[in-house]
Amino acid sequence: MARTKWLKIRVSEQEIADIKKRVGQHDMSNYVRGLVLDQPVAAPELKTKKIVHSADPELVRAINRIGININQIAKQTNTGQEVGNAVLMALLNLQTTLDKALASSMPDDR
To answer: Is the pTM of this model over 0.70?
Structure first.
């Protein structure tokens, strides 16, 4: 059922504060609609919080460039072209370095 009509009401600052307190984690529209239409109000869906880590923009660009190079190596390998031992050793060293850098940058409260 498409909801195309608006129901507008005016409330005071205190009334809106009380309504928001009662609504809690519920969606305001669904909560009020359920109350007005005497329908059960479903439990709110818990939203997971996305953890955002800050990073040095230059470091992000450097890692991006490394990723591009690795993708080019993978493409070369997947087309049947041989990759030399020097490239493979460099990739292993790069992986070790990145693992260490990542481990040292992560907080201990994981």
So the answer is: no
